[in-house]
């Protein structure tokens, strides 16, 4: 998460020459989406890996026969698997920016700087941009921003290991972990979690924007030209503390999210 936020803060945005509102809205929605999705993705990784390690340890310490080498997850497997959390910032971000910008420009097409935006209109606009973005291309196209189609083409960690295991068990175990992760991301249940998380963050975002603009001012409406500086400001703040921690904590506090990850840790319900 920290690596991605640093990239988003430093990376220049080569926006296409659309109308003026597009860059500000794009950055804000992009920050909101990446913060939400990366938080959920890392939790999926941690719970899948934690379950495998727990089962392996329990079997090793119990009366069951010791696991075969191919069933074990060693340090090298862990590092390679967890390194995929940086795939978005290292590889997926350019396409993500372009697609978010395309969705934003589609929703904001025809909007003028003199148009009045109320809190309701702004909320509906943000939700519409997110919905448009998530429905672009093939179903679950967004998974490609977070992880590669083939785990073998992406290696952030050296393949070498001091464990003495052959390369085949490493590749097989890594592929198993990545396969389980992809299955979770493609599940209907995870789709529901995404929807809940984004809705929660949009509500929190609206509170922050209303606070900056003045709640009564935004309720009655203000020209888009006056709203844009607030949009740009909040887009930057989302990537920094304490905003980032507060937004991520809001996701973690959703009861359905907690229940989802409890189930994920205790079983393999999506395979």
Automatic annotation (TrEMBL):
Transmembrane helix listed as a keyword: yes
Matching Pfam families: Peroxin-3
Keyword Coiled coil: no
GO molecular function, one term: protein-macromolecule adaptor activity
InterPro entries: Peroxin-3
Coiled-coil region: none
Transmembrane segments: 24-42
CC terms in the record's Gene Ontology section: peroxisomal membrane
Protein name: Peroxisome biogenesis 3-2-like
One GO biological process term: protein import into peroxisome membrane
Keywords noted in UniProt: Membrane, Transmembrane, Transmembrane helix
Native species: Olea europaea subsp. europaea
């Amino acid at each position: 998460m920290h690596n991605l936020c640093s990239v988003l803060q430093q990376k220049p945005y080569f926006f296409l020459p659309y109308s003026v509102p597009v860059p500000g809205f794009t950055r804000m929605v992009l920050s909101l989406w990446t913060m939400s999705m990366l938080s959920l993705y890392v939790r999926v990784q941690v719970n899948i890996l934690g379950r495998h390690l727990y089962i392996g340890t329990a079997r090793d310490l119990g009366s069951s026969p010791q696991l075969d080498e191919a069933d074990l997850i060693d340090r090298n497997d862990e590092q390679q698997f967890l390194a995929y959390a940086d795939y978005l910032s290292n590889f997926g971000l350019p396409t993500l920016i372009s697609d978010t910008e395309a969705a934003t420009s589609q929703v904001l097409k025809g909007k003028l700087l003199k148009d009045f935006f109320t809190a309701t209109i702004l909320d509906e606009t943000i939700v519409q941009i997110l919905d448009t973005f998530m429905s672009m291309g093939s179903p679950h196209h967004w998974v490609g921003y977070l992880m590669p189609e083939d785990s073998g083409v992406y290696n952030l960690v050296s393949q070498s290991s001091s464990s003495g295991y052959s390369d085949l068990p490493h590749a097989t175990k890594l592929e198993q972990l990545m396969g389980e992760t992809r299955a979770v991301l493609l599940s209907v249940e995870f789709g529901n979690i995404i929807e809940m998380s984004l809705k929660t963050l949009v509500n929190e975002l609206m509170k922050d924007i209303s606070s900056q603009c003045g709640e009564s001012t935004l309720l009655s409406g203000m020209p888009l030209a006056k709203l844009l500086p607030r949009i740009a400001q909040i887009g930057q703040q989302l990537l920094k503390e304490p905003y980032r921690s507060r937004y991520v904590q809001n996701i973690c506090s959703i009861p359905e999210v907690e229940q989802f990850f409890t189930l994920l840790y205790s079983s393999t319900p999506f395979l």
